[in-house]
Design brief:
The complex is a heterodimer.
Chain A lengths: L1 E10 L2 E10 L4 E5 L6 H9 L6 E6 L2 E2 L11 E3 L11 H11 L5 H10 L15 H13 L5 E5 L7 H18 L2 E6 L2 H7 L2 E6 L2 E6 L1 H6 L4 H6 L4 E11 L2 E5 L5 E5 L7 E6 L5 E3 L10 E12 L3 E7 L3 E7 L3 H4 L6 E6 L5 E4 L5
Helix pairs in contact in A: 2-4, 3-4
Chain B lengths: L5 H30 L1 H8 L2 H34 L5 H13 L2 H12 L6 H4 L10 H25 L3 H9 L4 H12 L1 H17 L2 H6 L6 H11 L2 H33 L3
The chains are: A alpha+beta, B mainly alpha.
């Protein structure tokens, strides 16, 4: 549905570097990356805003590289929604049909109704909440009946208590209308709810593309692991291999076993998601095959649902413990503790694969 | 009630002096004119005076129309694109602001006189700028260009370019995105740029007389009366000009204000 073939774009000191990407019809592709990674430029390039971009852009199997935005039928929703401040909600939604010379009335009414905007139809954008603006922006984008929707951080200005509802509605909308969606975001939560596939982007490059499982459990490089949100990235050295399983020496003398296709003495990055680590005060791990790393608690950072526990294991290690489990564990700074890491939780990135 | 602090006091006094200067200047014309209304009315009824005021305002409107036609695209390009030599173009636009107006007048005259590079193109067709309405207009355009272009450019650059991008993804061609989104959102700056340019144009004297002493614009008429008829004669014309200009500014302010209230955006 959308294909980018070595797309490049230079803006001052920043550049999109040879981006190749493919999005299937009906797919919900997430582009995950920190701010400043070029996500917005990527969307604008697909929409045709930057005629000076190099490489090729294909939409619906047609080369649209030289087609201007008005000829691409690709809807774009910006992070701040870019509503037209001089037009009412209804006029905003009707803008696309009006520009295309279509009869606007009933279709616009249906969209206003679909997004619960009918009572707000005559308001100006400066009288709307963040969530309301987001719905106007979506309704306006859908009014031209596009089959491709590009979304730039569409939930960032939505109140947290509405966000999960909006996420669900977005997913339903995408399925219902068979939309092909490309959304850029730095939120992992949104990706888990919505994405059928994820691309990891940083510094104007796509680092990795894959399923949620691949991107979040098996990142291809240290940078991809960092962007995927894996808290513990530890340098280690392979000291032995047995079949597909490698034994890796971590700083401070601890050892961890993991499935990895590496050779002995290779330097590797060991990825350990904080939520996978179980803490046992001074005891052994119940599960077989788990790696036990002894350490000392250096810090506790309480959150609403989980608490981050910082450990010194000869290297810094962060564990994420459900806040409900805390009283039973009675953890305190300075306490010795064992970090139990299940065998399947560790992912190993060979050093040579670094981007 | 607490006394204001020293800085507020000092700044208020300094500011008040400047405002008082303008007020005094207005009063020194208004008081004698309003105390001899019959003379003022008789001057106001003079065909010379009426035709001069109409001529000045008409030439000012034509000058602003030309600026709107040529200056709006220029302002947009300056607001939206970066190109080599942009700083040079911007300085060129500002030149009329720093030139003595007699110098501006001389330049305009040299360009548009019948033997000049531009005037010479029109002369064979029987179109002349010297001592003519068109001469007044071209002088006015020259001196008021920076007021229009700079104000409108500022207005365009305040409209987020993303709005134009979205308009285009919704099916608007570039020019349509400009007219449907950027222009209405720059309305305030367009009106204020046009008003300032018009005010500058109708007040121009030095640049205008170099190419067209006749027909007399108001400034020329006031100067001519001052040097031949004396204070009282020129003061009446000047006061009429103050009143009419003031009324027109009020009208524009009112029109712009009511438009903005209807648009109702920050």
């Amino acid at each position: 549905m959308i294909t980018l073939d070595r797309v490049t774009l230079r803006r001052g000191s920043f550049a999109l570097r040879e981006i190749s990407l493919h999005v299937e019809r009906g797919e919900y592709l997430f582009v995950l990356g920190p701010s400043g990674s070029g996500k917005t430029l990527l969307l604008e390039t697909i929409a045709g805003i930057h005629p000076d971009a190099g490489g090729r852009v294909l939409v619906r199997d047609q080369d649209v590289t030289v087609i201007p935005p008005e000829g691409r039928r690709v809807a774009l929703v910006y992070q701040d929604y870019a509503l037209f401040p001089h037009l009412t909600v209804r006029e905003n939604v009707a803008f696309g049909p009006r520009m295309r010379g279509a009869d606007t009335g009933s279709a616009v009414d249906r969209l206003l109704d679909r997004f619960g905007l009918t009572p707000l139809a005559d308001r100006y954008p400066d009288r709307l909440s963040g969530g309301e603006r987001q719905r106007v922006a979506l309704a306006r984008a859908l009014a031209t009946e596009p089959d491709i929707l590009l979304l730039d951080e569409p939930f960032s200005a939505v109140d947290p208590e509405l966000r999960s509802r909006y996420l669900r509605e977005m997913r339903d909308l995408q399925r219902e209308q068979g939309l092909t969606v490309l959304q850029v975001s730095h939120s992992r939560d949104e990706a888990f709810t919505l994405a059928s596939r994820v691309a990891v982007m940083d510094g104007g490059r796509i680092l990795q593309t894959g399923t949620l499982e691949e991107v979040f459990r098996h990142p291809s490089s240290r940078d991809a692991a960092r962007i995927a949100g894996i808290e513990n990235l530890v340098e280690g050295m392979v000291i032995g291999t047995a079949g597909q399983v490698a034994e890796i020496l971590l700083p401070g003398g601890s050892r961890v076993q993991a499935r990895a296709n590496v050779t002995a003495t290779a330097t590797v990055t060991v990825c350990i998601p904080a939520a996978e680590i179980r803490l046992v005060p001074g005891g052994a791990c119940a599960r077989d095959g788990a790696t036990v790393i002894p350490g000392t608690i250096t810090g506790l950072m309480a959150g609403e649902h989980t608490t981050l526990v910082e450990l010194d294991c000869g290297f810094p290690l962060t564990a994420r413990v459900p806040s409900a489990d805390l009283p039973a564990l009675s953890l305190a700074v300075g306490d010795p503790v064992s970090a139990c890491i299940p065998a399947g939780a560790v992912h190993v990135i060979p050093k040579g694969d670094e981007g | 009630m607490r006394l204001p602090d020293r800085m507020t006091l000092a700044f208020t006094v300094a500011g008040a002096m400047l405002v008082a200067y303008t007020v005094a200047a207005l009063l020194v014309i208004a008081i004698p004119e309003l105390t001899s209304l019959s003379h003022l009315l008789s001057v106001a009824a003079e065909p010379d005076v009426i035709s001069s005021i109409l001529l000045t305002f008409a030439a000012g409107f034509v000058a602003v129309a030309i600026l709107a036609l040529l200056g709006t695209p220029l302002a947009y390009q300056l607001a939206r694109t970066d190109f080599r030599g942009k700083a040079l173009v911007e300085s060129l636009i500002d030149i009329p602001l720093i030139l003595p107006h007699t110098v501006a007048g001389l330049m305009v005259y040299l360009l548009f006189m019948a033997r000049g590079p531009i005037g010479g193109l029109f002369a064979p067709a029987g179109i002349f700028f010297e001592e003519a309405f068109l001469g007044i207009v071209v002088a006015m355009v020259f001196v008021s260009t920076p007021y229009y272009v700079n104000t409108v450019r500022e207005g365009f650059s305040r409209v987020p370019v993303q709005l134009e991008h979205v308009a285009r993804t919704l099916g608007a061609r570039r020019f349509r995105a400009f007219t449907a989104v950027t222009l209405p959102l720059s309305q305030g700056h367009l009106i204020s740029g046009a008003t300032m340019a018009w005010g500058r144009a109708v007040g121009e004297f030095a640049a205008v007389i170099m190419i067209a002493y006749f027909p007399m614009v108001v400034s020329t008429l006031i100067y001519q009366r001052f040097s031949t008829g004396g204070l009282a004669e020129s003061r009446s014309v000047a006061f009429l000009m103050v009143i009419v200009a003031f009324l027109i500014f009020l009208l524009i302010r009112w029109a712009a204000g009511s438009r903005r209230r209807r648009d109702d955006h920050p």
